[in-house]
Design brief:
Length: 299
């Protein structure tokens, strides 16, 4: 059996998996993400080496699938606008990681990798995936095909400005959707005191804190805006909530579904689309982005 190796590289962590061609996770390893192109490559290469050793795989050769934030040029293995990782525009990530590991590297956007993994695990061919992590991005699997776009920017809805009086976004614009519907947005309003901010917020809301309930509901309404944006653009069969914020589980889905229902209350058109009924959570028991990256490498 040929094992597949995939890396999910995010602003806070690098998660690597070895998977079977059927999508079974055989080994995994998580480390903290450094900042900057060369440090990220070095950390990723170390994860690859440890995973290879853990399953007795050769120390070089094979294919590594990688999901990374930003605009990814798959043909050249470069990334631009990976603003939360501190990777310079045009950095040849694929080439550098290939040199460090002796493998062929297939690079794609991290949300795209997560969408592929989620579609495989849920057994659906038509979905919109919302990655709620440090930032916000969407990925689209339409009729079984991943939509990347002519400039590799399909799904970058986090950088759609929605509030001209809002805070400055890492992308350079003002009031982007990402600034109010992401893990960073929660952390700015509800510090976790050592715990993930989203978990702390939803726990406090469940305990009856009126302030936490207000922050949670405002956040859920902005995520509902993102769901509505995806649904009204490409009309997928399901919209999946994933990323680090989705680790709070069903409470997130319920809060966003409630916000969607409230937004549709005065609109027969929106009610007819049943957006709350299309909402799903990414499988929490499996690393969908790293698994999707491994499957990407197999393609």
């Amino acid at each position: 059996m040929t094992a597949l190796l995939g890396l999910d590289i995010g602003a806070t962590k690098i998660l690597g998996v070895v998977a079977s061609p059927r999508g079974e996770v055989l080994a995994s390893l998580r480390v903290a993400s450094p900042t900057g192109g060369e440090p990220v490559v070095a950390a990723a290469a170390e994860v690859v080496a440890k995973l290879r050793a853990s399953v007795g795989a050769p120390t070089s050769g094979g294919v590594i699938g990688v999901g990374i934030p930003g605009l990814v040029d798959m043909a050249h293995g470069t990334v631009r606008h990976a603003v939360n990782l501190g990777v310079a525009d045009g950095f040849p990530f694929g080439e550098r990681l290939a040199a460090a590991t002796g493998a062929r590297v297939v690079l794609d956007n991290d949300a795209n990798a997560a969408a592929l993994g989620t579609a495989a695990l849920l057994g659906v061919a038509d979905l919109g995936y919302l990655s709620l992590g440090t930032g916000l991005a969407a990925a689209l699997v339409l009729d079984g095909t991943l939509r990347r776009g002519s400039r590799n920017a399909a799904g970058e809805i986090g950088h759609i400005p929605i509030d001209p009086a809002g805070p400055r976004c890492e992308c350079g614009q003002v009031g982007c959707l990402e600034t109010v519907a992401s893990g960073s947005a929660i952390a700015a309003l509800w510090p976790g005191d050592g715990r993930p901010a989203a978990q702390a917020l939803f726990d406090a809301a469940a305990s009856g804190s009126a302030a936490a309930v207000a922050v949670r509901d405002r956040f859920a309404a902005r995520v509902a805006d993102a769901v509505r944006l995806v649904a009204l653009t490409v009309d997928p069969a399901v919209v999946v909530l994933g990323g680090g914020v989705a680790q709070v589980g069903e409470r997130l889905r319920v809060a966003v579904a409630h916000a969607l229902a409230e937004q549709a209350a005065a609109s027969p058109f929106l009610r007819s689309l049943d957006l709350p009924g299309r909402l799903r959570l990414a499988p929490s028991e499996l690393p969908v982005a790293a698994l999707g990256a491994a499957l990407l490498g197999a393609r």
